[in-house]
Amino acid sequence: MFKKIVSTLLFAGVVVTSSHAGDRLNGAGASFPAPLYYDWAYQYQKDTKNRVNYQSIGSGGGIKQISNRIVDFGASDKPLKSKKLAKKRLLQFPAVIGSIVVALNIPGVKDEALKLKNSVVADIFAGKITKWNDSAISNDNKNLKLPDEKIIVVHRSDGSGTTYNFTYYLNGSSQNWKENFGIGKTIDWATGIGGKGNEGVANLIKQTPYTIGYIENAYKEKNRLSAATLQTASGKWVQAREENFKAAAKYASWTKEDNFYAMLSLQQGDTSYPIVAATFILLPKEKTAKNRKVIAFYDYAFKNGDKAAKKLGYISLPEATKDMIRQYWAEKIK
Predict the structure, then answer these.
(1) Domain count of the chain?
(2) 3-class SS of residue 227
(3) pTM of this prediction?
(4) Which of 132, 160, 238, 330 has the fewest beta carbons closer than 10 A?
């Protein structure tokens, strides 16, 4: 028998009991935050003996599994609006902020060397620009010798919050994209090959020359891939770096009343990286006892996980946002 361990978290006037040693939580969903959730779960088990299993199956899968009450918590990079949350009887809060980079594999082209206008990125993924030495690309990269090779687009093959946030960015960057493709977890792509999860897209880019795709920054760093320099919403060139992710993230406007719904791409500011996104946790309203165990894990992560987040290339939530989430828990989970 494990020794009974009871740890309590006191916030907003409510005491939340974590669980007994050896308890196990099951979550599934977004691949975007998966590297960080694995790290948090490992440290949590070391410190509390409580186990958190997380399956990286994509945001679409996470929403589906929590809606059907298959897992204890779902994870999605696509936030759900309050009306949909009410219909599915779900609660929602953000866990961490990340960024999506336009990763590429052009032999001889180093990280951050290639500049791509946001409208050009949209035209590449729309199949309008098909060669790496197209004038739309070469005019902004006169210092690079770009190959006369076909561009191989790599996109997600599964329902994906990363796709949702990336297409939100494309939708705001190109009238052609807005009219013909729009925003979604899945898209009827005009061109390219599909990979499952951020993992699958990153592996295809790494293994295949002349590819371009979109992945969470942690996967770019882990696989030592190159990323394009993009534009801010105001048209300034900006690189995929922590300080520029933070510059965009600071404009997030969270409210408990709206269940923290927010889109963070194409924010104002001359140094704001254009594709930044929060990732969210979904809980079933009626499962109070299990929800207390889930929020005990995330409260632990909020208190102890910022260093891991930074190391893996994520942006931790501001302390004020964490406190707002604790208030939300106290109001919703009783």
Answers:
(1) 2
(2) strand
(3) 0.86
(4) 330
